[in-house]
Amino acid sequence: MAHIPRKQPVIVTDDYILYLEFAFKSTFIHCDCFKWNKTVKKNLLEDLQKLSQLRTEPLFAIHEIDDKKHLKFITMLGFKHFMDFIGADNKMRQLFVRNQNGT
Length: 103
Hints:
This protein is of the alpha+beta class. Helices cover about 25% and strands about 40% of the residues. The protein contains 2 helices and 6 strands. It has a 6-stranded mixed sheet with strand order 1-2-3-4-6-5, with helices on one face. Helix 1 (about 40-55) links the parallel strand 3 and strand 4 (about 60-65). The protein is globular, with a radius of gyration of 14 Å. It starts with 6 loop residues before the first strand and ends in a 5-residue tail after the last strand.
């Protein structure tokens, strides 16, 4: 059987790549941004909304608590705090969620 990478690119642009990762019976999103401006932000929000509308399950994002820039980014994308948890490395993290309608 072929190895399937955990992170699958689902939207690839010159400015960013959105990945989905399936783990723990949930779907996690990752984003690599290569450029940032108002147009990139608009396009990313539109792409994320389209992706969310194709899904019936929520998307989750893991947040490192001390990363204020990441917190600003995921809340701008419509993610809401869901719960705190301790990772396998014993570090406290936060789980954020975004539903189909961006809530």
